[in-house]
């Protein structure tokens, strides 16, 4: 859970929120390879001695652990990024293989935190488009994000009166 503020000039700001994972996908693959080598090596020795059922259970175990680590690896790089630059508020979300990006008008954006509860997310709304962020933050970090976003948007509304020709 990393809510870090990147470069903050009057015209740009960025907040990156990432999942707190102890293993990268590459490290998870290495752990899986080592585990499979050990398990299947021992099972192969038992198979040579006539206990072929040990190999069958070792293969089932390797498949189950592989499925669990695959799910873990798909979501290890999940993140949310809120970026304010060039007159736009860009909200990007990565969830497994799905990527979503939403552009909002910062001069009409409203940031709110409906409830300070554990599961309440930060709501950003502009011109009828609503996005929720902060899945990887603690409640206190969400409050800090709301304060920082409001401050940045207050400055952005003075710099950018809104895109030309927008409704």
TrEMBL record:
Protein name: DUF2244 domain-containing protein
Source organism per UniProt: Massilia agri
Keywords on record: Membrane, Transmembrane, Transmembrane helix
Matches recorded under InterPro entries: DUF2244_TM (IPR019253)
Annotated TM spans: 28-46, 52-73
Domain of life: Bacteria
